[in-house]
Amino acid sequence: METVPARPDGRPPRSYKGSSRPDQQKRRELALARQREARKELQAHARRLSQVLTEEAEFNDGTQEDLMYLEAETATDESSFRQGTTGQEPAESSGIPPGDSLRGQISPGDSVRGQQLREWYARQLLQPEWMIDVPPDLATNWSVMARPEGKRCLVISANGSTVSRLKNGRILHTFPSFLPNGARVKGIAQACHVYCILDCIFHEPDQTYYVIDMMCWKGYPLYDCASSFRLFWIATKLPETDAFRPPAHYHRFRFAPVQVYDADPGGIHLAYAGEVPYQRDGLLFYNKEAHYSLGVTPLVLLWKDPLCSNYFLDTDSKGTIPTEQQVVLRLRADGTVASSDDPPVVLGSIPAAFLQQHAESLRPGTLLRFSVGDRGIQTEGDGPPVADLQYQGLANQRRGGPDSFTKILFQYAARHDPLTIEQIL
Q1: Residues 168-221 pLDDT 10s
Q2: What's a single GO CC term here (predicted)?
């Protein structure tokens, strides 16, 4: 009998196929049940997105900071500390709420601009969980695509203009395009009820927006449509326009679909190693029944390894891989620090005396940076996760939000016991 190699720490190898640690499969089942019961005002929500399309641009002072998000981490010189108290608790009112629902909506007549508007836009994208186990129905009920490397964007075309916003809600580009109602030119400009909302990745080398999901097309909302239908519409509706054509005077950037495959071994191999017109940055797996939900969802999974991504391990603001894993969490009113999940996963707490000493900078909702210590992250058994966290200082408050729990686990596994392409196949 073939001997299965032990993990680097000497423990038996972890089973990934159908594994439930830490209950990722249970979260997938609950998410499917929840979306079947959900009754959201999705068309009104899509219309609000298009109506406030240019509001921040109107108050934009034209600085580079408003047009482009640059990673620039800040740190404080407070002494570090370790804390391991953990648990998973319901969300609380402090800070920006998780975006798995339409909470924090902008209603007609509301006057919002600047940071408040950017924070609202930052909650309008689906955030995939990171793959920490392999779904048992991967080959039959999932699709896969090669994720392009670049800046994730929310793209809206409406009122004869097109605007792309980064994950933190800031404007990346305001430009004319050949998307429906994306430019003030005959044949493109249309009535105010015609607008498009796309989930894209801007690939800098070829100046192309690669469309990885579609939430609204010509005013028709697709949030509550299955991902298999949304991805089909990208492949069929986008070529019906001139948006895929090379840049022109009224079409500054090209839009292109991403090839989608069934997530069986053949499809995964093509997505992993097949030829693509862009730099690959991991694989995206979509449950075929998944709706487009706002916030972190277990029905879309991101996976990477060193062969299909330049960013298998997270890098710092200088592009170097830190010696220790870095984690960004949000400080809550009770002194605990938690992930971006809904409900958030609590991974530690800050001593009350330390909070009082630094009350001016350590306010509820603040993003904090930690490193993972030698004791690592433990998720064994049914108990809450336990993490050995060492405080490093304030994180960049404009990054859009804290890390998700599965990203933290994936990055930890990547350094110790990574999930490989062979295990997925």
Answers
A1: 999 999 999 999 999 998 888 888 788 999 999 999 999 999 999 999 999 999
A2: nucleus
Encode pLDDT of 278-298 as tens digits: 999 999 999 999 999 998 999
Sequence ranges of the domains in the chain: 43-124+148-261+314-424
Pair 131, 419: CB distance under 8 Å: yes
Give the pLDDT confidence of 233-242 residue by residue, as tens digits.
Answer: 999 999 999 9
Radius of gyration of the chain (CA): 22
Which stretch of 33-37, 314-318, 392-396 has the lowest confidence by average pLDDT?
A: 33-37
CB 31 within 8 A of CB 413: no
Looking from the CA of 331 toward its CB, the CA atoms found within 13 Å total 23
Question: What residues have CB less than 8 Å from 413, skipping those under 6 apart?
Answer: 132, 419
The DSSP code for 191 is: -
Q: Which helix (H) or strand (E) holds 41?
A: none
Structural element, H or E, at residue 271: helix 265-273
To the nearest 10°, the Cα dihedral for 365, 370, 372, 374?
-130
DSSP secondary structure string, 277-322? Answer: SS-EEEEEEEETT----SEEEEEEEEE--TTT-TTSS---TTSPPP
Long-range CB pairs of 213-222, under 8 A, 24+ apart, other chains included: 213/126, 213/292, 215/46, 215/292, 216/46, 216/49, 216/50, 217/180, 218/180, 218/190, 218/194, 219/46, 219/193, 219/194, 219/195, 221/42, 221/43, 221/45, 221/46, 222/292
Q: Is the peptide bond before 257 cis (omega within 30 degrees of 0)?
A: no
Strand partners, 260: 145
User: What is the Cα–Cα distance from 76 to 116, expressed in whole angstroms?
Assistant: 26
Residue of 87, 112, 105, 119 lying closest to 41 (CA atoms)? 105
Pairwise CA distance, residues 289 & 141, whole Å: 8
Residues ≥6 apart with Cβ < 8 Å to 357: none
